[in-house]
Amino acid sequence: MNDYSDPYELRVGVPAVEVFRRLRTDAGLSDKAPEAVELALPNSWYGVVLHHDGEPIGMGRIIGDGGTAFQIVDVCVHPTHQGRGLGRRIMAALSEELERRAPATAYVSLIADGPARFLYEKFGFANTATHDSIGMYRLMEGS
Question: N or C, which terminus of the chain has less Cβ within 10 Å?
Fold first, then answer.
């Protein structure tokens, strides 16, 4: 009999504001203003938080209108836990929820930073620049 216990647990939901900010900055993502995070988190369509021995060490969210457009955001894992397939676990949970609840004609997008594109490609995401569309973004002043 195997006594191995997985120290990682994926829980449905979104983290508290300060945990969200810490997870982003620990993983090298930009910080967000607390007021903005307070507005954003309750509007998540779906989210997961990855815990290691009870401590939040990763997360991912889906935002969108619930029907035609969705975006995967805030996928991150603390650097000391990277390289263990945990980003893949987060993406698998988000993808499974999209498969379960999103309409078949929905458009799902994300922004791939650096080598994260290789993870996202495993979940069927493709570079938009190879088609007639390109990904674009605008940062609000002060971002």
Answer: N
Look up residue 70 and give its amino acid: F
In a domain, 136, yes or no: no
- At 38-69, the pLDDT tens digits run 999 999 999 999 999 999 999 999 999 999 99
Residues 23 and 59 sit within 8 Å (Cβ to Cβ): yes
Q: Quote the domain boundaries for residue 93.
A: 8-130
Rounded-to-10 torsion of CA 43, 48, 53, 57: -80
Number of domains comprising the chain: 1
DSSP helix/strand/coil, 38: helix
What is this structure's pTM? 0.89
The two three-digit tokens of residue 56, written as one number? 């939040």
Strand ranges for 1-143 from DSSP E: 8-12, 46-52, 55-64, 69-77, 107-110
The string of DSSP letters for 115-136 reads THHHHHHTTT---GGGTT----
Task: Answer whether residue 142 is part of any domain.
Answer: no
